Amino acid sequence: MEVIFLTYLNRSGSTYLANLLSSSEKIIAFPEAEILVSLFLEDPFSNYNPPDKDKRDYLLSLLYNDPKLKYWDLGSEVFDPATNNARNVDQFLKILTAYRDRFKPGATVFLFKAERLIHLIRKVRWDKTGVKTSFIALMRDPRAVYASQSRTISPLDGKPLSENPVYTALQWKQFAGICSYGGRMDAFSLVQYEDMIISGQKFIEQLCARLGMDPGSITPGRGDLYRRIPQDHRAIHEGIQMGPLAEKTDEWERVLTVKEARLIEHTAASLMRSNGYQLSEPVNNCYLYLIRFYREIIYFVNVLSRKAAFHIRHSK
User: Fold this and answer.
1) Banded model confidence at residue 124, pLDDT cuts 50, 70, 90
2) The domain that contains 253 carries what CATH number?
3) Domain with 300 in it
């Protein structure tokens, strides 16, 4: 068994990449289910214990009711009655294996994707357990990310994925900063959306070389993930069926206002440059600096408020 973890910032092309890799008979790409990250990957080597009745019932309720996990169509088969002290990692793999057995029994490589995995790079490296793991971080120009987020309506709440270019730029900046560190680790591959779309077969060959896979097993347009995406989520992923569209790489220039693009550049200028993204103009505009500074304060206040509320709820 092998596990490939794919992390990204939302609307960076991760579903396209996952669907592309799922064209291999050896790879099963799982639909998104962030709840599995919270439950099992934050502390993978602690025991999933108890699986007493309450804990078991809680997990079953998530399998049936979580907005994304319920579409995995799993039930009590994810539990091993002979194992009362399963670790979180074991329960996680049990769920993935149950899904694999139902939808693609011959697959030996699990491709699991989630945004928050970027913060868990060290925790989800399990080579010492006998499970080979590797990590793919997918990066995209933050201006293009925001352009896509601002026009994409979430099927969960009916709102745009982002309405604030500074917030998106701050998230991208954090993601890119962690990627700079992760690039020094074994089995970590940082790839860029623009290369994936423009380079095509060359990109596939380079990525497969890093993963130790046969590039001949990957066939663009033959991925099987799309048909397993929940019906109400397919509308925001229709593009993955069309193949690489080169115009998507600079579409942000036609979509964003000058102010939106400059705010993103002001926020993430240094890391954009270091990752090869050309800035539109020098970033020394005082007016934009004040707007960015104000929005950054609001952003970090909101982040700290959410963290405080989380700890208060869980301390009761």
Assistant:
1) confident
2) 3.40.50.300
3) 285-316
